[in-house]
């Protein structure tokens, strides 16, 4: 009787752990692929502040490489895009913001639901302060891709040697609870 009870308890605990799995999708729990939310067709577009004509004259443009998830959320896909900014530090925030915009096709914007609050370069370290909305949270595979996409995007600029990522102004151990977040992340 005791053996049967222990066996049933172990199976029950295993099933409970399997089903809870931090709220991830069935595919992530089974290890088939990382969980990256599909792009919602009903999400409201973010409102952009109108650029005044005088400000348009001061705008600069740069071609940058940005990285998205492939349709299965298994690897990064590089794409070149043009970003517009006013001041030199604005180039970094604009490049990171491009990661949150869906490029079309089957690529996934990994920073969708993540707002870049600031990006400031000082002593070759870029400090990025961001805010993560609930819909911006990803599974462990998605978080790993997101961190790699941010690093690849930021470290294409030769003047950046390290990256400090803050969430709502604070250092955190992990962006979404799955991957350790070094402080700072150094160019590899």
TrEMBL record:
Record keywords, A-Z: Signal
Signal peptide: 1-27
InterPro entries recorded: GerMN (IPR019606)
Keyword Endoplasmic reticulum: no
Source taxon at top rank: Bacteria
Domain GerMN: 92-176
Stretch list, region Disordered: 33-56
SMART domains named among the record's database cross-references: Germane
PROSITE patterns associated with the record: PROKAR_LIPOPROTEIN (PS51257)
Descriptive protein name: GerMN domain-containing protein
Organism: Paenibacillus piri
